[in-house]
Structure formats: structure tokens, C-alpha cells
UniProtKB/TrEMBL annotation:
Pfam families: LRV. This is Leucine rich repeat variant. InterPro entries: ARM-like, ARM-type_fold, LRR_variant. It comes from Demequina activiva.
Length: 146
């Protein structure tokens, strides 16, 4: 008979496996289909994740998985995928996108103009952190107040 901790231990072992830097594309794709959202989220953040799998994970019902995709530092993620994630209704996903330095400033600037004050404030802060805040923000039509 299994112990009460069996499921938890198995999930933790799977998350550890998902963090292994030597996984093949096939192994990553298998983990991306896991029943555990934490495992899917962990592999969604990996730069080596095949793009087709990332596109599928961006549609995942779990916000944690979509946030993992939003955090993914790949430089070749399609602009349309970043736009899709920027429109997500879950704050965790949008904040993960804002924190990702690979997301283009044009997407962040659009978030900076949103009515959602927390998104807008975080997006403006990211743009301002690039130096020359007035110049960067002005380029995207965002006025700064001093």
C-alpha cells in the first residue's frame, strides 16, 4: 500500500526531473503533458522548450502554466504569443510577462497604458528602469510626471 506522502513525493520528484538541464525535446514534451500543473509550469519556463509545445502551454487552463510561458526567456517567441499573454485575465500571467526582459517594449508600453493600475504601474517601472525614462516612455506615448 502507498504512503499518504506518495503523491506529494512523486510530484516533487517530477518537478526535480523537469529542472534537469539535460532533458531531450521528447522528455520535455512528455513533461509538458503532465497532469501536475507545477510540472507543466516548470517546463514552460525552460528556454529549450520546443516552440510548438510552448504555444500549446500558452493555452493551458492553469494560470501557473501560462505564467511559466510568460516567464520563458527565449528570444524567438513570436510577438503574437506575447500579445496573447498580455491580454490574459489572470494577474499572475501579466506580471510574469512584465518581469520578462525578453518581452518587447512595445508590449510593455501597451500594458503601461491600461486601466489596470497595478499592471500599468509595473509596466511603467520596467520601461523607466531602462534609463532615460522620459525618452523611453515618451516614445510609446506615455507621459511622465515629476
Amino acid at each position: 500500500m502507498f504512503s499518504e506522502n506518495y503523491s506529494r513525493q512523486t510530484a516533487l520528484a517530477s518537478v526535480q526531473q523537469a529542472l534537469d538541464p539535460n532533458l531531450s525535446d521528447h522528455e520535455l514534451a512528455t513533461l509538458a503533458r503532465s497532469e501536475e500543473a507545477k510540472i507543466r509550469a516548470a517546463v514552460a519556463e525552460r528556454p529549450a522548450m520546443p516552440l510548438t509545445t510552448l504555444l500549446k502551454l500558452a493555452q493551458d487552463p492553469s494560470p501557473a502554466v501560462r505564467a511559466g510561458v510568460a516567464r520563458n526567456p527565449r528570444v524567438d517567441i513570436p510577438l503574437e504569443l506575447h500579445r496573447q499573454l498580455a491580454g490574459d485575465k489572470t494577474p499572475e500571467v501579466v506580471f510574469a510577462l512584465i518581469e520578462n526582459p525578453q518581452v518587447p517594449d512595445s508590449i510593455i508600453a501597451k500594458l503601461a497604458r491600461q486601466l489596470h493600475k497595478e499592471y500599468a504601474g509595473e509596466a511603467r517601472a520596467r520601461l523607466a528602469s531602462k534609463g532615460g525614462a522620459s525618452k523611453v516612455l515618451g516614445r510609446f506615448g506615455i507621459a511622465t510626471s515629476h
